[in-house]
Specification:
With about 190 residues, the chain is α/β, with parallel strands linked by helices. About 25% of the residues lie in helices and about 25% in strands.
Amino acid sequence: MDSTHDTFDAEAPRPVLEAPDIQRVLTRIAHEIVERAKGAQDVVLLGIPTRGTHLATRLGERLAQITGRDIPTGSLDITMYRDDLRMRPARTLARTDIPPTGVDDRLVVLVDDVLFSGRTIRAALDALGDLGRPRAVQLAVLVDRGHRQLPIRADYVGKNLPTSLRETVRVQLTEEDGRDGVLLGTQPATA
């Protein structure tokens, strides 16, 4: 075998969160939001498509159970705010859906599935700034895998999952994938 083209077989992805774990995590995050936001009176949840939007909807349902009132929930497309538009193939725009209450003077909680470099959240902050002026912005993520390139951190984290750059984190949600879970895998090494 030519040593300049050595590759190692990628390990099969292993589950790090199963469906019941994801349910527990979302319930815990909902309670944390209610506690920090003193009842969540002015909270608006905005999910970052695609899986962040589903997580925001689920989080909104749990907050409604805890508070006894509907929590405004929507989605925030960040496609045109990304800093890698020129480096990647064209992508389809997702939907931005801001609740009728708007975002002005509200506590906006951005919701995403995985926090990695921080660039997606930077783009979300830019997009949000074009929609209004929230009182404050917080971040809730299902998984924080580290490797930040920007000074961004989540206020609510389902699971801290230290990873190497060769590892991949794949979130599966019933709405998109037919099942709930978080898988940790390894990319093949290339020389």
